[in-house]
Amino acid sequence: MALTGRTALLAAIGSLPVGIWAPGWTGMLAVNAPLALACACDFALAAPVRRLRLTRSGDTSARLGETADVDLTVTNPSGRPLLAELRDAWPPSSWQPGTEVAASRHRSTIPAGERRRLTTRLRPTRRGDHHADRVTIRSYGPLGLFTRQGSHQVPWTVRVLPPFASRKHLPSKLARLRELDGRTSVLTRGQGTEFDSLRDYVPGDDTRSIDWRATARQSTVAVRTWRPERDRHILLVLDTGRTSAGRVGDAPRLDASMDAALLLAALASRAGDRVDLLAYDRRVRALVQGRAAGEVLPSLVNALATLEPELIETDARGLTATALRTAPRSSLIVLLTSLDTAPVEEGLLPVLSRLTKRHTVLVASVADPHIEQMATSRGTTEAVYDAAAAAQAQSERHRTAEQLMRRGVTVVDATPDELAPALADAYLSLKAAGRL
User: Fold this and answer.
1) Residue 381, burial from CB neighbour count under 10 angstroms (0-12, 13-18, 19+)
2) Which end of the chain is less enclosed by CB atoms within 10 A, N or C?
3) Which CATH architecture has domain 231-433?
């Protein structure tokens, strides 16, 4: 129970003081006798808060940057009308800064025995599960002099999914895939290809592709054309250790890696390849295996939604052992990790041969565009020092990439905006070369 501002104003101008006491008050409040009677009647006529019944419905998921509407249905079973203000509390990251008050507060009038639906529109600023907190209701009497107030726990969860901004590149990558996949047959030879058809030999063709039996049956030299093999296995490995927590622009490196992984998964599943996901630092953080082509992308998006970087050093030996268990036969292992010198030289390089012995390995890393900007800085002493530091960082990064490539690893090093399409291009190039 609480006084309103209107009650205090009337009490200030009252003339016949009497005492009113309510639980939780530390003293007596002096008001006039008519006002005391009005307050008592107002309190008695205010609908009780604790008897209200509240239920939720609405969206259970949304992509980061989009809105989610959660409906709150309030039923008034009492015999008195409910004049109420409600606050639907959610974590601060459920709204854009400065919009929480307007979005979470509602006014409603609910006649006796009826119900009303109120909609809270969330616009989350972070991935993951957002859980509803309590709903606080303030019930006013008809005169607005006294209120009843109470809270209800009404559970609800909205899962905020990765935004998948690189989806815009998918049509162009699929067009290139169709060129490789039978509409325009390509002449390749080696592991990971399927025979497509025969055609006449033209200068420049690989002589190893000549079909001598077919040539003997006709007057021209025939060569075999090949197309990329389907049903290959792709294992996406996300390094969730401390290096993935470094922010590049407005987001951690892990978020850019997720976006690239989603584009590659969408492309590979359309190509008929099987895609699995492993997220690891010192233990498995997420694992998606054995999904059908139509289920791969939703499963990956759902698994990545709650994934966060861990501020610990990644156990490269444990990651390698887990990846080998997850991909028992020849596969393309795409490792999304850092190209920082120390983690690669001390962690990845000593165990890399265990992966390259059986699998094709591709390492993708997020480059910081700010380093590129610093490398071109000139004009002041400070800018020259920045440029020197950036040049040294780039040199170490290139040296690390060269060490990986000398061991047969394909390396993709690109800024957050370019990583996803660059990784997709590397995958298509491996297919075109017959390495998948």
Assistant:
1) exposed
2) N
3) 3-Layer(aba) Sandwich (3.40)
